[in-house]
Design a protein that fits this description.
With about 220 residues, this protein is an alpha+beta fold. Helix content is about 30%, strand content about 30%.
């Protein structure tokens, strides 16, 4: 399946407690038509196929299929394939593997890019979150609802233009990835709260990939 995606990034990132997460980012432009989409879906799990076919827009279906393919690539070193995986959802809709509980994963897509991350951990206190976003215009109203006061002040201190847009996009991926790692989504953050990290054992990595930003976050809570 790797040949069907244009891999732009494939890296291992370190968390605390010897945790390591592998992440890939790839373009789906190599899957340009419905026949390619059908071929991709035929190789994926029933859960992923149903999730993908429920989407109305062809582009969204293509991205969903591509995300499943990226996850399949990450599962191969464990002797697994996405097609054989069984899923369950938490209260916030974050999926996990029933048949491989020691593996945590997360997916994201935007524009023509998909991103996926996987991590092996025996602890239920560890998780991973990933988000990728195409460069977007700064939206002050959104930032004030979601970002911390310090981040809003930093954004509004910049002149309007590409620099402000890039920082807004990067910060958005950071908030998304943190919320997904926590298993709650972006609503994890209270914009009026202090800037103290919600989890002291959270490590985040933000990268620029052409006109996209990707952030990977790894959480690890110590049990005392």
């Amino acid at each position: 399946m790797a040949a069907m995606l244009d891999i732009r990034l494939d890296r291992v990132f370190e968390g605390s407690g010897l945790l390591k997460a592998r992440a890939i980012a790839a373009s789906v432009e190599a899957l340009p038509d419905s026949r390619a989409e059908e071929d991709a879906l035929s190789r994926l799990s029933q859960w992923r196929r149903e999730k993908t076919l429920a989407l109305k827009h062809p582009r969204q279906r293509l991205l969903s299929a591509g995300a499943g393919m990226a996850l399949d690539i990450l599962l191969q070193p464990y002797g697994l394939s996405e097609r054989t995986m069984s899923y369950s959802l938490n209260a916030h809709g974050k999926p996990s593997f029933r048949n491989a509980p020691s593996l945590c994963f997360n997916l994201s897509h935007s524009g023509s890019m998909v991103a996926a991350a996987i991590m092996e951990s025996d602890s239920q206190t560890a998780s991973v979150g990933i988000d990728i976003q195409q460069l977007a215009k700064f939206r002050e109203g959104v930032a004030r609802r979601v970002f911390s006061l310090a981040d809003v002040q930093l954004l509004t201190s910049l002149p309007c233009g590409e620099r402000q847009d890039r920082l807004f996009t990067r910060l958005w991926t950071e908030y998304e990835a943190k919320g997904k790692a926590e298993g709650t989504g972006i609503t994890w953050h209270d914009a009026e709260a202090s800037d103290t990290p919600a989890n002291p054992d959270m490590r985040c990595y933000s990268l620029e990939i052409a006109e996209y930003y990707m952030t990977l976050c790894i959480t690890h809570r110590q049990i005392i």
